[in-house]
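Suppose a colleague, Dr. K., hands you the sequence of a protein chain of 326 amino acids and asks what its three-dimensional shape might be. Before reaching for any lab equipment, you can write down a predicted structure in token form. Begin with the sequence itself:
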Amino acid sequence: MADAAKRMADLAKIDSTRALYRKFLPRAAAPRNRDLLIQVAGHIPAKAHRENQVFHTYGVGLVASGRGDYRAGKGGLRSVEPGCMFTVYPGTFFDYGPPPGATWDEYYFSPAGPGVKRWIAYGWLPVDGSVHAQRNFPFLRDLFRELFQTLSSAGRDAPDRAVCIAERLLVEMYHGRTAFEERVCAPSIHDVLACCRHRFAEDLDFEALARAHAISYSTLRHRLREITGLAPAEYLTSLRCIEARRLLAETELAIKEIAQRVGIPDPYSFSRVFKRTEGQSPLQFRERLRPWTLPRAKLAWPRAAPGAQYATGAGRVLVDRARVRH
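The predicted structure, expressed as tokens, is then:
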């Protein structure tokens, strides 16, 4: 009898503690009708350029290091610096990321549910193709890490806590915007970059390309170096080597055929250019990747960087070690 009475007293104490916890817990942390869910949060330490990407969900990104550009739909190509926040959303396509051959360090999360419309209405989640520099980046980075750890915990309260952290992130970023002057690349420069990305296998004449887009060659060279950090010829070589890396990793094509496909018909010249750029010969590059190569259909994130981590609403932590495409 005494033991039973003691157990009843202990249960009553636990119930009172839980009631006190519910009383002082912010209502936003445990909504009765959940209209928001954080689907995934993660950190990509070496993200590459994305082109013509279409999204069916919303996403918020914060660039920790590296530089690049961002373009939503047919809007202007906007400069992205370390500490900048940007979003992706359904209904249009996106070109964003660092210059070809470079990477940037990015934290991100993806919300879902009817409550996202409220965030948009408040202006916390911009859907106008804008980029915003943030005043207090270290604090925001810590919040992203806390969000990642919360989703990784798989606790019963993790989904509610994740929504609270994500909402605080958006509020802090909304009120922490600096007077960052977005640089919009001239359409002609963007057109030249797009032309290079699609015609890198051709013997491009940059002076003729500049005239075709109504700009001088000196302007083209200056703006290209400002955006990519490379001279015109170096930029073209980097694009060719990026495609060569992809073909070496994903196909069994001979070196001679790969050289022709990327616009360097002579395989010996191709090997010299590739080794000068990558620090190893094409054959060495392929052999180094061989133990890591996976069938393309089995890759969960085929363009993710090696070592990128993701935390999902189900509490799973996934590490993509694929070295095929990044």
